[in-house]
Design goal:
15 strands, single chain, two-stranded antiparallel ribbon, about 15% strand, alpha+beta, about 475 residues, 11-stranded mixed beta sheet, Peroxisomal Thiolase, Chain A, domain 1
Length: about 475
């Protein structure tokens, strides 16, 4: 059974009400330029929110070049890269928000530690958010909310993940014993506690990439979706190969301009993602199922890999951006957060989110020029596209009369996606937004739709509108 859909809806630009319902608005600036647009309605007086620039460190396979660093090192370099790319005066930043998933206990508020390391004034508040794979999406939209409500004009947002050094704990019994030992008031008391130690106390507690509520790995859900929507193993492998091939071409053609050089300790400079590895279908076909043996169809070759990386974006009010001479890339428009059954529909957030964000914006699939969908698994992306194109699914679970429609594949992830570029959990969302903005500029489109799934049955979708060139 599918649980009731939970959703949070936000609109930009806004007046005062967060749940005001109206069509996607063009801006006074856009109308003044007499730019032809597909759909519009009356302009509000609220601040327009723009994405000025976005950067990221190279996304690297965990356990490779970044292995001896810490998460705040990656976040700091991303923030410094944003400053360099924009020549942004640090003192005009009002707030800093970062997303992360697996937190380093020494730097629990990674946003604050990275900001101080990057040289931002200590008067600038910073906080960290976590929402699984859409953590940096939440950082960006929280930044937009601060701007719309008039509290800020300039916010640095982004995310970081560092899977090369995850926190591994002692067993709970050992932790409790050590805490008690620390309180022991005598040697005899300490020895008495130590005599209670059992061999199984020494077992280590590793973080699990599994759903707490269901104890299932996300790959199990991907396999279940593949079966439910009849996504074959060959389809998954073809999609994964497409992702790697497109990413390699984008890298070679110099399209991944958001990637900034990372100077390693010792002076060596890392300049490229290292997760991009196109493999022939014949080779992919030999890989064993990763989650359900022997009949599963999801493999390591069709799954995103554990990745280290950080990203950062500059979010501003349009007025402030223009006052400082910046040329924004896109407007942030309507966005939604959704949630559904974390077992059978764990990875269907893009379907629910896409349907809802198109509904509140007054747009259709045909109006969208650029799609950036997070690729946790090839099966997940393909299942969502089939769900969007299914009258039965939309009528049964979304309460609509007819299907939303699947995005044309030629508009989806044209420069690669998480399967090929890598997926540092907390950093992927702002990477998606920046890539969508760059594609809109390169392709001359007007609207982009970014959508992603996340652990817990969560999802996010947002509409971007190209800034007039």
């Amino acid at each position: 059974m599918v649980s009731a859909l939970g959703q949070a809806i936000y609109r930009f630009p806004l007046k005062c009400s967060w749940d005001a319902a109206r069509h996607l608005s063009s801006t006074q600036h856009l109308q003044a330029q007499s730019v032809a647009i597909k759909k519009s309605s009356a302009v509000t007086q609220a601040k327009n929110v723009v994405l000025v620039e976005g950067v990221r460190t190279p996304f690297l396979l965990s356990g490779t070049d970044y292995v001896d660093l810490m998460s705040h090192d990656l976040a700091r370099v991303a923030m410094q890269g944003l400053l360099t790319q924009t020549s942004l005066p640090k003192e005009i930043v009002d707030y800093i928000i970062y997303g992360t998933v697996v937190q380093e206990v020494k730097t629990s508020n990674i946003a604050r530690e990275a900001a101080l390391g990057a040289g931002f004034p200590d008067r600038i508040p910073a906080h960290t958010v976590t929402m699984a794979c859409i953590s940096s999406n939440q950082a960006v939209t929280t930044a937009a909310g601060l701007i719309v409500t008039g509290q800020c004009d300039t916010v640095v947002a982004g995310g970081v993940e560092f899977m090369s050094d995850i926190p591994i704990r002692l067993s709970r019994q050992m932790r409790q014993m050590l805490l008690s030992l620390n309180k022991a008031k005598s040697m005899n008391g300490a020895l008495s506690l130590l005599r209670k130690v059992r061999p199984y106390y020494l077992a280590l507690d590793f973080p699990a990439i599994a759903e707490f509520s269901t104890s299932e790995l996300m790959g199990h859900s991907a396999d279940r979706l593949a079966a439910a929507f009849q996504v074959s193993r060959l389809e998954q492998e073809e999609f994964a190969l497409r992702s790697h091939t497109l990413a390699k071409k984008a890298q070679e053609d110099g399209l991944l301009t958001d990637v900034i050089p990372f100077k390693m300790p010792g002076g060596r400079i890392v300049t490229k993602d290292n997760c991009i590895r196109p493999s022939p279908l014949e080779q992919m076909g030999k890989i064993k199922p990763a989650f359900i043996w022997p009949h599963g169809t999801v493999t390591a070759g069709t799954s995103s890999v554990l990745t280290d990386g950080a990203s950062a974006v500059l979010i501003m009010s349009e007025e402030k951006a223009l006052a400082f001479g910046f040329k924004p890339k896109v407007y942030l428009r309507d966005f939604v957060y959704v949630s559904q059954d974390p077992k059978d529909q764990l990875l269907l957030g893009p379907t629910y989110g896409t349907s809802k964000v198109l509904e509140i914006s007054g747009l259709t699939i045909a109006d969208i020029d650029v799609f950036e969908f997070h690729e946790a698994f090839a099966a997940q992306v393909l299942a969502n596209m089939k769900a969007l194109d299914s009258d039965w699914f939309v009528q049964t679970y979304l309460g609509k009369q007819s299907k939303v429609g699947a995005p044309p594949l030629e508009k989806v992830n044209k420069w690669g996606g998480s399967l090929s570029l890598g997926h540092p959990f907390g950093a992927t969302g702002s990477r998606l937004l920046t890539m969508a903005a760059h594609r809109l500029q390169k392709e001359g489109g007007q609207f982009a739709l970014v959508a992603a799934c996340a652990a817990g049955g969560l999802g996010h979708a947002i509409i971007l509108e190209a800034y007039p060139q």
